[in-house]
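pinging the channel bc i need a second pair of eyes. not urgent but kinda urgent?? the chain im working w is below, pasted from the shared doc
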Amino acid sequence: MSLKSSFSDIPSIEAGCDEAGRGCLSGPLFAAAVILPYHYTNDKINDSKQLNKTERETLREIILKDALAYSVVSISAKEIDQINILNASFRGMNLAVKELNIKPELLLIDGNRFKNETDIPFQCIVKGDAKYLSIAAASILAKTFRDDFIEKIDSEYPMYGWKQNKGYPTPEHQEALLKYGPSPYHRKTFHIKRLLNPSLFMKTFGLVGKSLSHSFSQQFFTNKFKKDNVLDAEYKLFSLTKIDEVKELFQCPTLLGFNVTIPYKTEIIPYLDELDSVAQEVGAVNCVVKENGRWVGYNTDVLGFEKMLEEVKSSKVQKFKSLIIQSTKKSPSNFEGVDGEAGRGSLHSALILGSGGAAKAVCYVLNQRKIPYQIVSRNKTQHTITYDEITKILINHYTLIINTTPLGMFPRIDEKPPLPYSAINSNHILIDLIYNPEETLFLKEGRKQGATTINGATMFETQAEKSYLRFKN
């Protein structure tokens, strides 16, 4: 079947762009851009991977003759090591476009993503080299020019068999690497390091969020690695301005897992391959692990908040036993225990401040424990009320007040949820999921009114421990 000659229905100048050498151990990456005449036809031009060497070389001469414009560039192994192979492919295609002697009106990019460094509109097309003539032509030029280069350097280092393997990781190529070590043309990144010395393969974990100055995660996991004598693992902070930047993070070959914090616990979900049953039901993810090449989302916040509720009913909270006695005398039929058993009443009901990913985990646990709750959000919906609706009378209907928002979190420690704090009394228990600072303004105001207060340290440590077990496995 013939490939399409153009993307647009009206005459326009389109440049097909493709690269070759992305999966190689050695040699540069080559990228090409080709502009063919509008409505150009050639039944022989196809994806370079579907053609043999003779067919590619014959078609290269035809493309060079028929193209209105073309360019071929290379990105060295050294530069690939510096910017990674994905960015090298983006850079190569951008350079190829800039070197065309005719400016295109549209770029047709082979693949599902592209970082455009030009002012020219572009269209990403998955398997575009098997759909559009201009992209297929670019793939042929990139492939043949790269093959010429590899065969030239093969004469310098014949022991790697580049004339046959073109720099790809065949068993023979890998055996030669083990025997002779890398050449100046080899890429000194993940594949080479892991092959030559597995101890150099540093496993990467981290935290994905927006503003991460408050987080203790890096310190926590670094200490865990050190304590367990895990020498080949590191924990980094990945501050993303928007969630779709995680797609580039996924390209890091050493990344095996990461935690997720505000504001991406729900936004991360569309980018994952799978969710476990709890994360699916909660609708939020705070732990992601790479399993068999697939990114799987988990929710360990649930376990962290369950631990907090256990702390609430434990002897560590001195006022709690008297609260149970007083409350059950007033309305025993309205109480459900932390374990969901009537008559052991612990919490009458809960007021949840916030409706984000952390709030979803809290709601899940309260539902499991059969503790009724009301969500408070900045915007009113069918299931939430706003802060303006919280009166002194209303606040006394709730025993437990849980802050799941970032209000009061370092460095903005002078903030607090807008509540009628004068209505809070010794019958209330205030929980803040924030652990930095140790006592937020929200908890401080509650303590002044005689309420029992608990910060988020227990939840943080518990969810982190559970995440650590996921990472280890």
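so The first helix runs from residue 53 to 66. and The CA atoms of residues 399 and 428 lie 5 Å apart. — does that match what u expected or am i reading it wrong
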